Amino acid sequence: MSEKIAIPSDGEVVNAHFGKSEAFTVFEIEGKEARKVEILSATGLQHQHEGLASMFKSKGVEVLVCGGIGGGMINGLNAVGLKVVTGASGNVADVAKLYASGNFVNTGSVCQHHEGDHGHQH
What is the CA 10 to chain-centroid distance, rounded? Predict the structure, then answer.
């Protein structure tokens, strides 16, 4: 049984700030193998919980493997059935392989920012 994961990416590296990510690399996990499927553009969806959740669901993504992410975004993604794991860093392909092997450690870390810290308006 396969599973699709998405990792916020800045080129080939994990974007440490989920909400500011303009791209997500999607991998299909089959057994202990991770196969890169596509790059999703999130341009214009930064910090938009519903828009991002809809995009992931429409592409069949089940798990978001992130570095840093806010509690509001986690709640928004969980509300539509998406699982969120945190603590990712480094090369996206390496993170996907680590997740596929069952050796990824979910740190459970949540970003604690105030609205003004993000540099955007709501």
Answer: 12
State phi, psi for 118 to the nearest 5 degrees.
-85, -15
Provide the whole-model pTM. Answer: 0.88
DSSP secondary structure letter of residue 67: S
Neighbours of 68 (CB within 10 A): 22
What domains appear along the chain, each with residue ranges and CATH number? 2-118 (3.30.420.130)
* Residue 120 pLDDT exceeds 70: no
Give yes or no for residue 115 having a pLDDT over 50: no
Let me know: does 53 contact 82? Beta carbons within 8 Å.
yes
CB 37 within 8 A of CB 56: no
